[in-house]
Amino acid sequence: MSRALTKDAVLDALRAVPAPAGQGNIVDQGLVSEVVLANAKVYFSITVAADKASSLEPMRKAAEAAVKAIPGVESVNAALTAERAPSRAPQARPATGAPPPQQKPGRREQIAVPGVASIIAVASGKGGVGKSTTAVNLALGLKALGLKAGILDADVYGPSLPRLMGLTGRPQVKDNRLQPMQAYGIKVMSMGFLVDEGTPVVWRAPMVMSALTQMLREVDWAPLDVLVVDMPPGTGDAQLTMAQQVAMKGAVIVSTPQDLALIDARKGLNMFRQVEVPVLGIVENMSYFLCPSCGTRSDIFGHGGAELEARKLNVPFLGAVPLHMRIRETSDRGEPVTAIEPDGPHAMIYRGIAEKVAAALAVGTTRAAPRIVVE
User: Fold this and answer.
1) CA 264-232-50 angle, 5° bins
2) Residues 325, 292: contact at Cβ < 8 Å?
3) Contact criterion met (CB below 8 Å) for 358 and 147
4) What is the DSSP string of 27-80?
5) Is the Cβ–Cβ distance between 217 and 111 less than 8 Å?
6) What is the pTM of this model?
7) Using an 8 Å Cβ cutoff, are 289 and 298 in contact?
8) What sign does the dihedral 360-179-223-112 (CA atoms) show?
């Protein structure tokens, strides 16, 4: 990072951008917030009125151009953060005393990635269920089926793909586009490539979405048949925004068998249903434990809970993955078991899951989202 690239330098450049209606500049009017520097990349947000957001797109582009002109800046991503005015009157409740009906979140204008045929999410209602390991091996399983696959680490706060894929270093920039890292024939992008492993990312939701938007539309993904998005755990603002604004063909839910994990998995599944992203199915991870010494099977977290839940919710059950030391060891080394032992029993399980996902995409059992390309 250039020594000249500081937050003060960014703010000074942004003072050249007029505020709406000619009222000074966007910095002195207090519209700029969350300036974040990640090596030679700059992220910031501009607060505007919700009903003016679309008309102020030229101002956003002017702000990006002003910062891009600073020596040492490689790329800029500015987000318009809309402030909504409070309702004038509270919503009346029905005479029965029942709460007012909740409005469905619905789908907004969506990001589609040119050259990427399908985007699918791998999600979980909570952390610690092996979602990222599943996402990596699913992507590799899709590649083993002959598909061109990539994977995006959307967990900005806790990126794990660099470790799981055995990748280090920084992505290159070519023609103003980030070049994804590659391992085992898979294109990979993660915030972990842009921020040191021990550095916490302390961002609010608008900045997280700005970073994810950049990693979707400013990365040279094409050509891909499938882009797997390793979603953050939970159902918070970042997850909901991704589900609403990215043109996803479907979602895979990962859970362990026990009741506590299934409660959260159900929440994640219902979130995708509310925003009209088809659920491709549920994977039961850590389904059972096989002792590496004696081969005895133990159902540490119970067994079959996710399969039963899939039947209750009327979604496909994609497969059960055991809790096995081999999967853990290879993941920790950055050598996914599906890549280094393609004919092994664990790779076969992941490949079976990939086959079901690929079949769902191929036969059109998922409903394609509107493709609105953001240039």
Assistant:
1) 100
2) yes
3) yes
4) TTTT-EEEEEEETTEEEEEEEEEGGGTGGGHHHHHHHHHHHHTSTT--EEEEEE
5) yes
6) 0.70
7) yes
8) positive
* Residue range 231-263, pLDDT digits in tens: 988 766 677 777 777 888 999 999 887 655 567
**pLDDT per position as a tens digit, 14-24:** 999 999 887 89
Rounded distance between C-alpha atoms, residue 288 and residue 322, angstroms: 5
Q: How far apart are CA 372 and CA 358, in angstroms?
A: 23
Amino acid symbol at 280: L
Find the length of the chain.
Answer: 375
Tokens linked to 294: 């004696």
Both tokens assigned to 40: 């030679």
Closest CA to 251 of 367, 156, 147, 347: 367
Distance CA 70, CA 4 (A): 8
Strands 317-320 and 279-284: parallel
Q: How far apart are CA 112 and CA 318, in angstroms?
A: 26
- Closest-CA residue to 349 (of 144, 67, 69): 144
Q: Which amino acid is at 191?
A: M
